[in-house]
Amino acid sequence: MKKLLFSLLASTLLVALAGCGSSSTGQSPQNSAAPAPTEEKKEQNLLEKVKADGKMLIGTEGTYAPFTFHDQSGKLTGYDVEVVTEVAKRIGVEPVFQETQWDAMFAGLDSKRFDVVANQVGIRPDRQEKYDFSNPYTVSTAVLVTHKDNTTVKGFADIKGLKAAQTLTSNLTDIAKKNGAEIVGVEGFNQAIDLLVSKRVDVTINDGISLLDFMKQKPDVPIKIIAKDPNVAKNGFLFRKGSTELVDAFNKALDDMTKDGTLAKISEKWFGADVSK
Protein backbone atom coordinates (compact mmCIF):
# COMPACT_ATOMS: atom_id res chain seq x y z
CA MET A 1 0.00 0.00 0.00
CA LYS A 2 2.86 2.36 0.91
CA LYS A 3 4.53 1.46 -2.36
CA LEU A 4 1.35 2.31 -4.30
CA LEU A 5 0.96 5.66 -2.46
CA PHE A 6 4.59 6.56 -3.25
CA SER A 7 4.04 5.86 -6.95
CA LEU A 8 0.95 8.12 -7.06
CA LEU A 9 2.83 11.00 -5.37
CA ALA A 10 5.75 10.62 -7.79
CA SER A 11 3.41 10.73 -10.80
CA THR A 12 1.68 13.86 -9.48
CA LEU A 13 5.04 15.56 -9.01
CA LEU A 14 6.14 14.75 -12.56
CA VAL A 15 2.89 16.15 -13.99
CA ALA A 16 3.34 19.34 -11.95
CA LEU A 17 6.95 19.71 -13.15
CA ALA A 18 5.85 19.10 -16.74
CA GLY A 19 3.27 21.88 -16.33
CA CYS A 20 5.93 24.27 -15.06
CA GLY A 21 8.17 23.37 -18.01
CA SER A 22 5.41 23.99 -20.50
CA SER A 23 4.76 27.40 -18.98
CA SER A 24 8.42 28.39 -19.18
CA THR A 25 8.74 27.47 -22.89
CA GLY A 26 5.65 29.48 -24.03
CA GLN A 27 5.55 33.13 -25.14
CA SER A 28 8.09 34.98 -23.04
CA PRO A 29 7.26 38.30 -21.35
CA GLN A 30 9.96 39.82 -23.51
CA ASN A 31 8.21 38.68 -26.70
CA SER A 32 4.78 39.84 -25.55
CA ALA A 33 6.23 43.27 -24.85
CA ALA A 34 7.76 43.54 -28.40
CA PRO A 35 6.92 46.82 -30.17
CA ALA A 36 3.97 46.86 -32.56
CA PRO A 37 4.85 46.80 -36.28
CA THR A 38 5.77 50.23 -37.58
CA GLU A 39 2.75 51.95 -39.22
CA GLU A 40 3.09 52.54 -42.96
CA LYS A 41 3.91 56.16 -43.72
CA LYS A 42 0.86 57.88 -45.15
CA GLU A 43 1.45 59.16 -48.68
CA GLN A 44 1.09 62.93 -49.06
CA ASN A 45 -1.65 64.21 -51.30
CA LEU A 46 -0.69 66.99 -53.73
CA LEU A 47 -1.99 69.80 -51.51
CA GLU A 48 0.04 68.48 -48.56
CA LYS A 49 3.12 68.21 -50.77
CA VAL A 50 2.70 71.74 -52.11
CA LYS A 51 2.32 73.11 -48.59
CA ALA A 52 5.29 71.10 -47.32
CA ASP A 53 7.45 72.39 -50.20
CA GLY A 54 6.14 75.92 -49.70
CA LYS A 55 5.78 76.39 -53.45
CA MET A 56 3.45 75.51 -56.30
CA LEU A 57 4.80 74.66 -59.76
CA ILE A 58 2.66 76.36 -62.43
CA GLY A 59 2.82 75.57 -66.14
CA THR A 60 2.03 78.45 -68.49
CA GLU A 61 2.90 79.68 -72.00
CA GLY A 62 4.20 83.16 -71.24
CA THR A 63 3.38 84.19 -74.82
CA TYR A 64 -0.42 84.48 -74.65
CA ALA A 65 -1.35 88.08 -73.92
CA PRO A 66 -3.18 89.31 -71.96
CA PHE A 67 -3.44 86.06 -70.01
CA THR A 68 0.23 85.10 -69.65
CA PHE A 69 3.03 87.10 -71.30
CA HIS A 70 6.10 89.24 -70.63
CA ASP A 71 5.78 93.01 -70.31
CA GLN A 72 8.32 95.48 -71.66
CA SER A 73 10.56 94.94 -68.65
CA GLY A 74 10.57 91.21 -69.28
CA LYS A 75 8.42 90.38 -66.27
CA LEU A 76 5.91 87.56 -66.60
CA THR A 77 2.44 89.00 -66.11
CA GLY A 78 -1.17 88.79 -67.30
CA TYR A 79 -4.65 87.92 -66.10
CA ASP A 80 -3.98 84.21 -65.50
CA VAL A 81 -0.65 84.98 -63.83
CA GLU A 82 -2.30 87.40 -61.40
CA VAL A 83 -5.24 85.12 -60.63
CA VAL A 84 -3.14 82.04 -59.91
CA THR A 85 -0.65 84.12 -57.91
CA GLU A 86 -3.49 85.31 -55.68
CA VAL A 87 -4.75 81.72 -55.32
CA ALA A 88 -1.26 80.55 -54.30
CA LYS A 89 -1.04 83.39 -51.79
CA ARG A 90 -4.34 82.33 -50.20
CA ILE A 91 -3.19 78.71 -50.02
CA GLY A 92 -0.03 79.96 -48.35
CA VAL A 93 2.65 78.98 -50.90
CA GLU A 94 4.92 80.68 -53.42
CA PRO A 95 3.95 80.47 -57.11
CA VAL A 96 6.78 79.17 -59.31
CA PHE A 97 6.08 79.57 -63.02
CA GLN A 98 7.53 77.24 -65.62
CA GLU A 99 7.00 78.36 -69.20
CA THR A 100 6.47 75.98 -72.08
CA GLN A 101 4.61 75.71 -75.36
CA TRP A 102 0.91 74.98 -75.27
CA ASP A 103 1.16 71.48 -76.74
CA ALA A 104 3.86 70.54 -74.21
CA MET A 105 1.84 71.66 -71.20
CA PHE A 106 -0.30 68.54 -70.93
CA ALA A 107 2.78 66.29 -71.11
CA GLY A 108 4.48 68.49 -68.51
CA LEU A 109 1.51 68.07 -66.19
CA ASP A 110 1.45 64.30 -66.81
CA SER A 111 5.16 63.99 -65.97
CA LYS A 112 4.68 66.07 -62.76
CA ARG A 113 6.82 68.99 -63.96
CA PHE A 114 3.87 71.15 -62.89
CA ASP A 115 1.29 70.92 -60.12
CA VAL A 116 -1.24 72.94 -62.13
CA VAL A 117 -1.60 74.61 -65.55
CA ALA A 118 -2.76 78.25 -65.70
CA ASN A 119 -3.31 79.10 -69.35
CA GLN A 120 -7.00 79.59 -70.20
CA VAL A 121 -7.60 75.86 -70.61
CA GLY A 122 -11.09 75.18 -71.93
CA ILE A 123 -13.17 72.82 -69.79
CA ARG A 124 -14.19 70.03 -72.19
CA PRO A 125 -15.69 66.57 -71.54
CA ASP A 126 -12.80 64.74 -73.21
CA ARG A 127 -10.28 66.59 -71.03
CA GLN A 128 -12.37 66.00 -67.91
CA GLU A 129 -12.01 62.26 -68.53
CA LYS A 130 -8.25 62.53 -67.99
CA TYR A 131 -7.78 65.68 -65.91
CA ASP A 132 -9.31 67.57 -63.00
CA PHE A 133 -10.44 71.19 -63.41
CA SER A 134 -11.07 74.00 -60.98
CA ASN A 135 -14.31 75.92 -61.17
CA PRO A 136 -14.35 78.31 -64.18
CA TYR A 137 -12.58 81.62 -63.66
CA THR A 138 -13.06 82.97 -67.19
CA VAL A 139 -15.89 82.77 -69.70
CA SER A 140 -14.99 83.57 -73.30
CA THR A 141 -16.10 83.24 -76.91
CA ALA A 142 -14.08 81.98 -79.88
CA VAL A 143 -13.74 84.38 -82.81
CA LEU A 144 -12.83 83.92 -86.48
CA VAL A 145 -10.01 86.21 -87.66
CA THR A 146 -8.71 86.99 -91.16
CA HIS A 147 -6.27 89.38 -92.78
CA LYS A 148 -7.75 92.83 -93.27
CA ASP A 149 -7.57 92.40 -97.06
CA ASN A 150 -9.65 89.23 -97.05
CA THR A 151 -13.09 89.85 -98.57
CA THR A 152 -14.20 86.27 -99.19
CA VAL A 153 -14.51 84.88 -95.68
CA LYS A 154 -17.70 86.17 -94.08
CA GLY A 155 -18.33 83.42 -91.52
CA PHE A 156 -17.32 79.99 -90.21
CA ALA A 157 -19.05 78.29 -93.14
CA ASP A 158 -16.56 79.90 -95.54
CA ILE A 159 -13.37 78.41 -94.07
CA LYS A 160 -13.78 74.92 -95.54
CA GLY A 161 -10.51 74.01 -97.29
CA LEU A 162 -8.73 77.16 -96.08
CA LYS A 163 -5.55 77.17 -93.99
CA ALA A 164 -6.15 77.89 -90.31
CA ALA A 165 -3.27 78.59 -87.90
CA GLN A 166 -4.02 76.69 -84.68
CA THR A 167 -2.27 75.07 -81.73
CA LEU A 168 -2.94 71.38 -82.30
CA THR A 169 -4.65 70.41 -79.04
CA SER A 170 -6.70 73.57 -78.52
CA ASN A 171 -10.48 73.45 -78.36
CA LEU A 172 -10.35 76.35 -80.87
CA THR A 173 -8.72 73.93 -83.31
CA ASP A 174 -11.73 71.66 -82.96
CA ILE A 175 -13.95 74.49 -84.21
CA ALA A 176 -11.67 74.96 -87.25
CA LYS A 177 -11.71 71.23 -87.98
CA LYS A 178 -15.46 71.06 -87.55
CA ASN A 179 -15.83 73.71 -90.23
CA GLY A 180 -13.52 71.89 -92.64
CA ALA A 181 -10.37 74.03 -92.39
CA GLU A 182 -6.89 72.68 -93.10
CA ILE A 183 -4.96 72.98 -89.83
CA VAL A 184 -1.52 74.60 -89.84
CA GLY A 185 0.06 73.85 -86.48
CA VAL A 186 1.56 76.73 -84.48
CA GLU A 187 3.20 77.06 -81.08
CA GLY A 188 0.91 79.80 -79.81
CA PHE A 189 -1.13 82.94 -80.34
CA ASN A 190 1.70 85.17 -81.60
CA GLN A 191 2.79 82.73 -84.30
CA ALA A 192 -0.79 82.36 -85.50
CA ILE A 193 -1.09 86.13 -85.90
CA ASP A 194 2.30 86.34 -87.65
CA LEU A 195 1.26 83.73 -90.19
CA LEU A 196 -2.03 85.53 -90.75
CA VAL A 197 -0.40 88.93 -91.23
CA SER A 198 2.10 87.48 -93.73
CA LYS A 199 -0.81 85.73 -95.52
CA ARG A 200 0.74 82.27 -95.14
CA VAL A 201 -2.57 81.15 -93.66
CA ASP A 202 -6.11 82.32 -94.39
CA VAL A 203 -7.66 82.39 -90.93
CA THR A 204 -7.18 81.66 -87.27
CA ILE A 205 -9.80 80.92 -84.64
CA ASN A 206 -8.78 82.27 -81.28
CA ASP A 207 -10.02 83.55 -77.96
CA GLY A 208 -12.19 86.65 -78.34
CA ILE A 209 -10.92 88.36 -75.21
CA SER A 210 -7.32 87.83 -76.23
CA LEU A 211 -7.97 89.15 -79.76
CA LEU A 212 -9.73 92.26 -78.53
CA ASP A 213 -6.87 93.06 -76.18
CA PHE A 214 -4.27 92.41 -78.90
CA MET A 215 -6.03 94.68 -81.39
CA LYS A 216 -6.32 97.37 -78.72
CA GLN A 217 -2.58 97.14 -78.05
CA LYS A 218 -1.64 96.95 -81.74
CA PRO A 219 -4.36 98.69 -83.77
CA ASP A 220 -2.19 98.87 -86.90
CA VAL A 221 -1.87 95.11 -87.29
CA PRO A 222 -3.85 94.26 -90.49
CA ILE A 223 -6.31 91.70 -89.08
CA LYS A 224 -10.05 91.76 -88.41
CA ILE A 225 -12.60 89.73 -86.49
CA ILE A 226 -15.17 88.23 -88.86
CA ALA A 227 -17.51 86.24 -86.63
CA LYS A 228 -18.10 84.90 -83.13
CA ASP A 229 -18.76 81.26 -82.30
CA PRO A 230 -22.22 80.96 -80.70
CA ASN A 231 -20.94 78.69 -77.95
CA VAL A 232 -19.45 80.15 -74.78
CA ALA A 233 -16.25 78.53 -73.50
CA LYS A 234 -15.54 78.15 -69.80
CA ASN A 235 -11.91 78.02 -68.72
CA GLY A 236 -10.40 76.59 -65.57
CA PHE A 237 -7.12 75.61 -63.95
CA LEU A 238 -5.95 72.16 -65.06
CA PHE A 239 -4.71 69.41 -62.70
CA ARG A 240 -3.69 65.77 -62.90
CA LYS A 241 -6.56 63.39 -62.17
CA GLY A 242 -6.90 62.75 -58.46
CA SER A 243 -5.64 66.16 -57.28
CA THR A 244 -8.86 66.50 -55.28
CA GLU A 245 -7.49 68.30 -52.23
CA LEU A 246 -5.59 70.90 -54.31
CA VAL A 247 -8.59 71.44 -56.57
CA ASP A 248 -10.79 72.01 -53.51
CA ALA A 249 -8.26 74.53 -52.17
CA PHE A 250 -8.30 76.36 -55.54
CA ASN A 251 -12.09 76.43 -55.61
CA LYS A 252 -12.27 77.80 -52.08
CA ALA A 253 -9.76 80.52 -52.96
CA LEU A 254 -11.68 81.39 -56.16
CA ASP A 255 -14.97 81.51 -54.24
CA ASP A 256 -13.44 83.81 -51.66
CA MET A 257 -11.96 86.00 -54.42
CA THR A 258 -15.38 86.25 -56.05
CA LYS A 259 -17.07 87.18 -52.78
CA ASP A 260 -14.57 89.84 -51.79
CA GLY A 261 -14.35 91.28 -55.33
CA THR A 262 -10.69 90.40 -55.96
CA LEU A 263 -11.39 88.29 -59.07
CA ALA A 264 -13.56 91.02 -60.63
CA LYS A 265 -10.91 93.63 -59.79
CA ILE A 266 -8.18 91.64 -61.61
CA SER A 267 -10.52 91.12 -64.56
CA GLU A 268 -11.39 94.82 -64.77
CA LYS A 269 -7.70 95.67 -64.76
CA TRP A 270 -6.96 93.54 -67.81
CA PHE A 271 -10.19 93.66 -69.83
CA GLY A 272 -12.21 96.58 -68.57
CA ALA A 273 -14.98 94.13 -67.75
CA ASP A 274 -15.67 91.14 -65.51
CA VAL A 275 -14.92 88.09 -67.68
CA SER A 276 -15.08 85.66 -64.77
CA LYS A 277 -18.79 84.92 -65.23
Written account of the structure:
Belongs to the bacterial solute-binding protein 3 family. Keywords: Signal. Residues 22-43 are annotated as: Disordered. It holds the Pfam family SBP_bac_3. Residues 55-274 form the Solute-binding protein family 3/N-terminal domain. By secondary structure, the chain is α/β, with parallel strands linked by helices. The protein has 2 domains: 46-138 and 233-269, Periplasmic binding protein-like II (D-Maltodextrin-Binding Protein, domain 2, 3-Layer(aba) Sandwich); 139-230, Periplasmic binding protein-like II (D-Maltodextrin-Binding Protein, domain 2, 3-Layer(aba) Sandwich). The chain contains 11 helices and 11 strands. The protein has helices at 2-24, 29-32, 46-53, 79-91, 102-110, 125-130, 171-178, 189-197, 208-217, 244-259, 262-271, and strands at residues 55-60, 69-70, 76-77, 94-99, 116-122, 131-133, 138-147, 163-166, 182-185, 203-207, 223-240. Strands 1, 4, 5, 6, 7, 10 and 11 form a 7-stranded mixed sheet that branches. A two-stranded antiparallel sheet has the order 2-3. A two-stranded parallel sheet has the order 8-9. Helix 4 packs across helix 10 (244-259). The longest helix has 23 residues, at 2-24. The protein is globular, with a radius of gyration of 33 Å. Mean pLDDT is 87; it is low at 1-35.
